[in-house]
Amino acid sequence: MCLAVGFAAKFADREVSPTRGYAAGLAYGLLGGFLATRSPSFAAVACALVAGELLAGKVDKAAHYLAGAAFFVTVAALGFVQPPLAFFALLCALAILDEWMEAAAEDFPPALSFIARYRLLSDLGALALSLVTGDWVFFIAIACFDLGYQLFDWLDYRLKGGRKWRK
User: Fold this and answer.
1) Is the full-model pTM beyond 0.85?
2) Per-residue pLDDT tens for 35-82?
């Protein structure tokens, strides 16, 4: 499911048709909200990613606002699961840094530029949390989300005959 959330989030980013963009936003908001109600670890990851996007000021399309609303309505309807506050705070801070660094990725040295371009701070933090706690939900959830996000880019590139998408 995390893979589908990442894929739909990137689809909502790229979709120029409002109807399909809204559908993708609704889908990833509902799925993300559902996952946030499954366990404290999922709640920490999902809520941190949503909060990080909002606090970094990166929500820039109506489809993402719809996703946020669907996320919160789903969590409210299915019951909020309290995430471990320290883990949430760490993942949220890393998500914010990911967003800020991605915007300036070309200004960093090559290794750091790679981390910034692919927003890997959250992944590395989740890996560290999983290693320390033994709860692999942190890492698997973020890694699958990012895999879905990148998979959309890869498929989009291939389906367009090797032409990059233009902003």
Assistant:
1) yes
2) 999 999 999 999 999 999 899 988 888 999 999 999 999 999 999 999
What gap in Å lies between CA 47 and CA 54, rounded to an integer? Answer: 11
Whole-angstrom distance, CA of residue 59 vs CA of residue 97: 15
* CA-closest candidate to residue 125, choices 107, 146, 155: 146
- Is residue 166 assigned to a domain? no
Range of the domain at 123: 2-159
- Domain membership flag for residue 165: no
From residue 139, how far is each of 5, 55, 148, 165 by CA, in Å?
Answer: 15, 22, 14, 29
pLDDT tens, residue by residue, 119-148:
899 999 999 999 999 999 999 999 999 999
- If you search the block for the tokens 């990148």, which residue do you land on? 150
* Sign (positive or negative) of CA dihedral 163, 121, 13, 71: positive
